Amino acid sequence: MLRGRAGSLLVDEPIAATRIEHVDAWKMRTLDAWAKLARHFDYAGPYHRAVLDSVRALRLLTYEPSGAVLAAATTSLPAVLGGSRNWDYRFAWLRDAGMITSALTRAGSDGEEELRFLELVCRSEAAPPALVPPPLSCIDGARPQLERELPLGGYRGSRPVRLGNDAAAQLQLDAFGNVLVAAKVLYGKLDTREHWKVVARIADFVAESWSRPDNGVWEERTPRQYTAGKVIAARSLEFVADMATTPEEARRWRAAAADIRTFVAKECVTRDGAYAAFAGSDVVDVSAALFPVWDFCDPFSPEMNATLVALDRDAYEGGLYRRVLLERGGHEELGFVAGSLWVAQYLIMRGELERATRIIDKVLEHATDLGQLAEGAGRAPGEMLGNFPQAFAHAAMVGVAVDLRDAITRPAAPGSRIVVTSARDVR
Q1: Given a cut of 80, is residue 244 above it in pLDDT?
Q2: Which of 194, 271, 344, 404 is the most buried (most CB within 10 A)?
Q3: Domains contained in the chain, number
Q4: Does any domain span residue 6?
Q5: What is the CATH number of the domain that holds 337?
Q6: 1 within 8 A of 18, measured Cβ to Cβ
Q7: pLDDT digits over 329-372, tens only?
Q8: Residue 226 CA, distance from chain mean position
């Protein structure tokens, strides 16, 4: 029951029967709470409505007592109809929370809500004090139950229907990298070093563990040397090294970052010169669009130019981009919403704003009337696939809108030509 008073009615006491004054009290309490949340965030710029819709979706996915944000509110909604890649997303992922924190802080949040993310990471019951937290946890910080299948038919015959998520036991380097990036953004905005001991512990873990095969951003069950995890590990260590409290910390983290950069340059480039999805491969994943966004490399570097060519050739269909999934059923997946928005972010960095806005508009064709986005998009307008609403996708929507706003308002370089033909609800 909601706490507080509305007139003379105490709204956190048991009631025998609901009366209209109870409903009125709950309504006012809810409106007051949303008004308070609204005061933490102020955004003006392109895709104003979509950004506000995304912020609202993220808050609807937030568990107020802990500040944890669910990856999605559903389980087992399929990324491919009739497929088997049906996962339980009703948990809080470090990766998602890190990206959400960075996006909201850059978009105009005062940082108060996002600081609770660091508190959740630091107080997670799923990890002993001497260890780092797992890549995902329950909304109260507890470790998720082991994955099991339920005897249900599934959405449009898509089985299995799962409860729990075994990814909690995986190594996901990018998850920890995103925590460090979020800490850097928050510390810069709020001029604080809250929970620095835990942040430093995570940085040490990344520096010691970067060479291990991990499960990657897409949580494949077979560990590999995924490039995206290496890249954000390097960049996040460089970020926190700038905030180190001792020279030894800074030296240790910068040395590890330099080793990672050497590994990526030698092992994680395809024969065509693009960034590979993982070491030794010739496939290119959409997550590589984030490398210049993370400031790992120049957006016009030879590797990124080749990466964009490969993505347009192999991953583009119907205005959106697919990701690389190597395990069963992955090749059947269609447009991946967050990844498509990452490509748009990269194109904005290249000054290709018109092309970027076409991707954003295509993504929004698959949103609900309340602006909520699912994990994936089908071929038909409005067709949504995967779990819903997905926090990952909404964080990407906020991030790309902020980058577009900054590109529009930034003075153009001499000789450059920036054209924007569509930016919904510019304010």
Answers
A1: yes
A2: 344
A3: 1
A4: no
A5: 1.50.10.10
A6: no
A7: 657 788 999 999 999 999 999 999 999 999 999 999 999 999 99
A8: 17
